[in-house]
Input
Amino acid sequence: MSKSLPLTSRAKTTALKQPKELFTYTRDIDGEYHYNANQSHEHLPYYYLPDSKVDTRIDLQSGFKSFKKIPEEANMSDFEPLLDAITQYERDEVSGGKIEGDVITFRGIMTRLMSIPYNLQDALDLVIVPFDGQLFINFNNEVELKRRKEQDDRLRQTSTKEKYEYVKKCEYSGYKFETVATIPEPWKDVSRKYVESRHKKPVNNYEQFLSVIKTGIGPVKLILAGEVDCCWDFIPEKASASLSHYVELKTSKVIDSNSQIVNFEKKLFKTWCQCFLMGVSKVIYGFRDDSFILRNVEIYQTEEIPLLIKDNPLNNLKQNQAQKINCTSALKWYGAVVEWLNEVIDKNDESVSYNLKYDLSKRSLSLSKTSKEIDEKLRNGGLLTQEFKNWRQELKNQ
Output
């Protein structure tokens, strides 16, 4: 069995169901995950970076050598914690039992799928496991880890030591920006000493605050988990309405040429995908120079980004007009993908799992069954855990 969906496919509707937060969970400095009972937002940082602070020439490479970076293998072992958090949420009496959704996955995966038409060189290899009437989707971790390692090895081999370190500092600068632009509590509860010494705080990418939302497009219901960088102002009393108060933090090089505008547009488009899918209303970009000095900060409203991209005058100069980014078209493609998966895969057939790949040569997504060996691996710890399967059986028996 092998089926494909060409990149020209588009759904008829762009009606995205308003995202709503179900619950949150966190990863601490030691890499341990914790379910946040009662929709707690205790570990969510707050944005605070006044213009006067930006003018102090913040160095986004300082502390690079002491960066506490989580290993790629550990960073990708994130489906089990999600299943554990879902189990704890479903055990909660107020949840009403089993989460209703056709697809359960991460926001990052759906962002990759949604942006394919304008990122044609991006490889994608996913696994899909039907279980208990739902589709569980994750990266094919073995393939993804190999791809990232090969990419890093290729960069290391083809670059000078200085260039390789520069690329790594670009990655680090994003985490540094998050550290210097946020505080652990609302401003009134944080000491001036803490605010003024943030630039000295060690940087890590272990700590995460994750939100799990319910949303959908067309007839397909989706459960998505995604990292949240910080809160803009406050968390409302009705915590499920907190998504519109979340902020996505990004960094980019200062723009001083037309080619850099085009590159930034691609970044902004993927950021829009990220935020739009989760219902995050604001994006804050920190722009740095070649010496990694923070030069300025720009705030974008998520809902305004499609218009900014559409009105970009450089779009008219592009030789290939088909590559003009169109957010509405991307949303229709996304709708076509999830509707297709929901239609062609039997969510109640637990005898088989699937591999979903982006085929660059054919410009299409290809769906095929995995081998029995891989299917058994995915259902026994590779994706689904025995604890989660036991819980769902227990839920059925109630």
